[in-house]
Predict the 3D structure of the following.
Amino acid sequence: SSGLLALLLMVLELSRPSLPSPLKPICDLRVLNHFIKEARDAEAAMKVCREGCLLSESVTVPQTRVDFEVWENKNASEQALEVQSGLWLLQQALNLLRASVTNTQLHSYIDSCINNLLSLSGVLGTLNLQEYSPPTSTTGLEGTWIVSSPTELLQVHLNFLRGKVRLLLLSAQACQQHDVS
Amino acid sequence: MTYDYLRRLLAVHVVLCTIGGAHVVQGARDFEKKVSMLLHEESKNPKCFAESRKDLTCFWEENEKAGSVDQYSFVYKYQNDRSESKCPLKAFHLTSGRKLYVCHLNQTQLFVQMDIEVNRDGHLIHNRSLLIESTFLLDPPANVTVSNGAKPGQVNISWIPPPVKYMDDSMMYEVFYSPMDSHIGKVEVARASSELVLRGLQPATRYKVQVRVNLDGVSYSGYWSAWSDPVFILTPPADLDPLIISLSVIISFIFLVLSLTMLVSHRRYLLKKVWPTIPTPENKFQGLFTIYGGDFQKWLGHTDGDLWQSPNVFYPEEGPSPLEVLSELPVSPLLQCPPLPPKGCRVPQEVKTEMDMGPSLQREDSTQSEDWTTKSHDHWLMERLQALQQHPIPYSQESQDTYVTLSHNNNEDVQDSIPVENVPLEVLFTSRKESESPSDLGSGSGQLSSQSSFEYSNQEWAHKPPGYTYMAVADSGVSMDYSSMNRLEDIGRVPVFTHEYKNDIALRRAFVTRQHHVHNY
């Protein structure tokens, strides 16, 4: 039976699902710059929209403000958590916006923003940050506020990318060790 | 000890104050620069700018009638803030007399909308919403250094970016460079880099370089900073491209070889052109220059009969020889003809009977053949000249030009006495025989213009042994052109005359002199 146990252990060991090898961190800010520019285009398009651009309901969005005195006092994990939760909230809000807006011209802008947010999540995943588990409920979350107009939502989206997301990428540990191009 | 301590403290304090004061003064100057720039560029009120990530300065301008600073209030609120905040104001007086009210914040929030309201006595006078990260107005780059590059026309420029964290990669720079003596310059842009290489600069020129900075507008944006203090550089002089040098050397070498080859192959021709042989009559006058040293009289005396007896030596083809008209001599000095230079005295040759021969340039032959008649001729000619002077001819005695006319004459009395071969030159007097001269001329003889002419009697001539008339004439316009009639072997050995004798003889080809017409003058 000990021999069988040993054999079993060996087989289990071999068949153990291997951990994914750490991905090469994406530290090139040009990717983020591209996302920021597309977010800016979407906000500009939404500003001039007159019809078919409404939010069906209010959405919870992250705070975008950056007080450098405060930000620099936070440690890396706190910063990462802020960014990750904010991105998750924005994804939910944009999905809702996509469903609410009937103006077909805006659809392409909103679609590209949603795709960019997904890519950003992937980029953050390469930075070897802690796992983020989204909250079950967004009401009363710290560091959030509620918007009801699509213009405000896209403004928040833009400012969030330009501020906190960028600062996180700049100061990420993983990026400090590699050559940041 | 306390005294020493206090003294040291005071010294340190003074030093610090001086430094701080200087800093303050410099800071005030920079502030004024930025204020004036924003007053010019920004139209909204209040005008705001951020110099770092954490501060904000807002101001607006009021005229002289503005109230005190207490009348104003600056209120701001960030988006999603529950309450608004107030900013303490300061007043500054500008040189133009206007007032400036300034609000300065040391802690700001970026990436969030800021709403500002300015009230005066409770009334809103200005309001504005802005994003602070889009109002950056940085100090110009510091420590701009320039140095000559590796290649000619290249200059390396480097600078220190403004010390703002997290924003190095968002900065863009403009480099302005222009020659010192020109106001037209070029601008190069550098992004997220603190050095730049300028290309295409003129050599040996003094350049002025300035740099300014701005944010790229993706995450952060703002206004262009002021230009940095100018830096100067002198570009090195252009050095010759080695390829051009080697090509020039090769081409010049090839050219040299070609020209040398040409020179060598055509050296004889070129030598003749550049250094023509001066003809000398030496070969015709044997011993004239070598033995007698150019003394013609002596030479004539020694070579009397030889050449005369063998005329064929000199006239292998035929007898006639040309008339040679000499260079100008005034009428009066003609009394002394010998020993004139060869140019002055000539012996007329036999008149050619055949036109195809034409007179040839063989005066040396004639001189040799009638040496023994020369002296007698001289005397006779002098007598004639004297006679001429006493009885001046009707026209143009003063004229220096003497022309010789060869004419065809049908006088029978003359014809028999003179052999054909020895028919001398015939000279016409124009005054009396002018009416006849055209006819004479028309008969086919050559005619030059004549202003004065000589005449000698036929009888006199008959007494003399057949020979050649020795005549001194003055001419300044008579020219002989025997170029078409020269015998081939004489070319190169015959002296070149200074005057050309142009006559119609050769042209008409009708010149036959069997007789000479003699008129008694």
The mean pLDDT of chain B is 72. The first strand of chain B starts at residue 47 and ends at 49. Residues 176 and 187 of chain B are 5 Å apart (CA to CA).
